[in-house]
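Researcher: Here's a chain I'd like modeled. Treat it as a single chain, no partners, no ligands.
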Amino acid sequence: MRQKLTEGKIGPLLLKLTLPTVLGIFALLGFSVVDTYFVAQLGTTELAAMSFTFPVIILLDNVSVGFAIGAGCCISRAIGKGDRTSLLDRDRYKVKRLATDSLILSLLIGVILVVLGLTTIEPLFTALGAKAEILPLIGQYMKISYLGVIFVVVPIVGNQIIRATGNTLIPSVVMTVAGIVNVVLDPMFIFGYGPIPAMGLQGAALATVISRAVTLAASLFFLHYYENMICFKLPSFKLLLQNWQNLLSIAIPNIGQNTIIPISISFITTLMASYGTAAVAGFGIASKVEILSVLVFLALSSSFIPFVGQNWGAKQYNRVYFAWCLGFQFCLFWGALMAIALGLGGSWVVSVFDKDPEVIKVAAQYLLIVPISYGAFGIILISSAIFNALGKPLPSLLMSLTKMLFLYVPLAYLGSWLFGINGIFAAACFANVAVGIGAYILCQKNLGFNNLKEPNKLLTEL
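Model: Modeled as a single isolated chain. Structure tokens:
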């Protein structure tokens, strides 16, 4: 365990961190996209049922990511300060102990989520607008998905701990292998193969759970045998609470922030349901295409957490500023590229998933309007990652609250009333742009970037 990110040119270093993460996130998000493709072959009703589960699945993932961010931020800053795993030094931040205690807490949270999920399936999805004929299909999918929640929470936290050390390759390889397993098992379990019976939606859920179990086993293996980050010595109760407190001080605001997103999407899904099953299906497909389009932003923001954490801990403030500049410029470039690509080819992309003309029409309109704001969305992600890495999660929470609850949801209802479905999509676009501008201003004013010395070194540092 050592500082890996406090030296060297920033551009190549961020590229080295981000490229494996792109592959890993692509594989992780591929779970959902592959499921969507095969489930679409079952019919529009099954696809709509899965679309109703999408916000809940995001919620479970985002709760896990919230804990993972808390662990990653604490560990990366500790490494940047020069702390080492010295179990004899009780006055210093014990990185290895913190990593282990993070995994223990994630396991407890996973158990709680399983119990809550299994007992709230019918009332929850009824509240989301699912009709009686779709509820049984949703139940088939979610009962299996909830049982696999532990396989979601623990490996996400484990992989983020590995990233905190500056190693993004191993987590990406783990997620890629799991994605391949999912691709192989999906058609076998959904449609049946040999002695395996056709299980429909249940098969899609089971394939994903097994794939997630692969990530659990692999992440624990690498944490112990490669990074030596798991401690089998029982901690004192005081030390355990201290480590959990440090983690939760960042994790809880992030969980709140990440919870806002799926809850808001649930409101939007309910609003889309008023336009019919095809509209919900189209919205579901467009949302998945969108995630694939912006996964580079997700990877880059994930890379910013260990980079900023280690450099801020080592008091390399200029390097954080230079990375911030480079990240913002890239977001604007990639956002413009995706807006053009999806504006021209959105209908064709959607038709790969579903041939229904109504579904294609809704999804294509989404992919024509919302991608205009992708550059601003990337800036929001980068800014949130920087604040979290510095142990300041509240600005990140404020950005999410403003975007989703104060802008997107109310403007979507207003837009739906005035302009129909396109008004909903325009609301999403406006919310991204407005908060993206605000995120830029927040970073400039609150991180002291205006006061840094020697800004003319930017080109040489990059």
